[in-house]
Amino acid sequence: MQTPFYGHVRQYHNIKNEIDAKIQEVLESGQYVLGPMLKKFEGELSEYFGCKYAIGVGNGTDAIWLVLMALGIGPGDEVITHPNTFFATAEAVWITGAKVVFVDCDPKTKCIDPARIEAAITPKTKAIIPVHLYGQCADMPAIAEIAKKHNLRVVEDNAQAIDARGDTFRQGEFSDAVATSFIIQKNLGCFGDGGAVFTDNPEINETVRKLRNHGSPKRDHHSFGFNSRLDDLQAGVLSAKLKHISEWSDRRIAWANRYFEGLKGVKAITLPFVKTGYRHVFHLYVVETKDAEKRESLHKFLVDNGIDAKTHYSIAIHKQAGFPWGKEYAINGSVENAEYNAKACVSLPMFPELTAEEVDYSISKVLEWDKANS
Ligand SMILES: Cc1ncc(COP(=O)(O)O)c(C=O)c1O
């Protein structure tokens, strides 16, 4: 049996009429950049997210660095994040000219460990970027407390966690802004690249809007800027999909629960950790082999059996060949949890349109490997 990792085409077929109608509407409008569909979608997005402003930008990486720039962060400044995330989180900091400072992740959630942050703060530290990794929110109240004490800005990277919530908090509540990605494989994905910034801060809203469009709110150029706009065709696709996001998250959670139930007896593998009361939206369902040396064996076994398992992220950012391109960085303390995660992680297929047969087949193969390796 073949089990894919992504379900974009299945998803398109399920809501083809809705998406095609939006695309048609944009095509007929003749306005494809900064047009009415983008404006409409930004309104829908801010309402859905529960924030004052949503700004569509070119991609999730730009969403992060545009916010950092709007906050005045640049050369000479330091920004704290963790190294077991997608490369773009760190890239976004380097693009501004600031220095990335890595601290370790929490061994269970894999999100930034708030207990490691204070030791990494220097007089140059300006911001913290918590990543809501795999679809679960970082401990935002703890992070916000540290930020408040040291007068730091907080930018949430929720590229993997749209529709996720904490136990007592929502995204955006404890930060200056939230940056997201709409690249196709994300939980809310367009048919190409896209991203957005969410904020309640009118200055961040105004500055990011200007920066994404050559420093120009309309025709005149108020500042230096860039070209990073979410185009209207992608906004139309996303507008059609946004209506389904809660239902899709619920399906992801249901598949995760099926994995948890089916795999509860495993001995050689650690299953994902969900914090009590959190809405973890399972962008990824990532297991770890207890013996990191055995990760390749599990991954290969699944792939050989037709399961398109992947590894997120098999090389921590500071160990990447392209790192750090002459850019400044620092690692504060040990990052052993992040490094272990990189060596031991295996992502099982996870998308709303999976079938019970596919999930059960993956479970059966993981159990088979676990039995042979326990
Ligand atoms: C955690 C994280 N941050 C940032 C990004 C960057 O988003 P994009 O690829 O849209 O630039 C991604 C995904 O690609 C991501 O997973």
3D structure, described in words:
It is a single chain. The chain has 374 residues and is α/β, with parallel strands linked by helices. The chain has 2 domains: 8-242, Type I PLP-dependent aspartate aminotransferase-like (Major domain) (Aspartate Aminotransferase, domain 2), CATH 3.40.640; 245-373, Aspartate Aminotransferase, domain 1 (Alpha-Beta Complex), CATH 3.90.1150.10. It has helices at residues 8-14, 16-29, 36-49, 60-70, 88-96, 140-150, 202-211, 232-242, 245-262, 295-304, 336-344, 356-373, and strands at residues 53-57, 78-81, 99-102, 125-128, 153-157, 177-181, 195-199, 269-270, 285-289, 329-331, 345-348. Strands 1-7-6-5-4-2-3-10 form an 8-stranded mixed sheet, sandwiched between helices. Strands 8-9-11 form a 3-stranded antiparallel sheet. Helix 6 (140-150) links the parallel strand 4 and strand 5. The two termini are 25 Å apart. 49% of the residues are buried. Pyridoxal-5'-phosphate is lined by residues 59-61, 85-86, 88-89, 131, 157, 159-160, 181, 183, 193, 195.
Distance between the termini: 25 Å
Strand content: 5-15%
Arrangement of strands in the largest sheet: 1-7-6-5-4-2-3-10
Whole-angstrom Rg: 21 Å
As a percent range, the share of helical residues equals 25-40%
Count of DSSP helices? 12
* SSE sequence, one letter per element: HHHEHEHEEHEEEHHHEEHEHEH
Coarse structural class: alpha/beta
**What's the architecture of the largest domain in CATH terms?**
3-Layer(aba) Sandwich
**Can you say what the CATH homologous superfamily of the largest domain is?**
Type I PLP-dependent aspartate aminotransferase-like (Major domain)
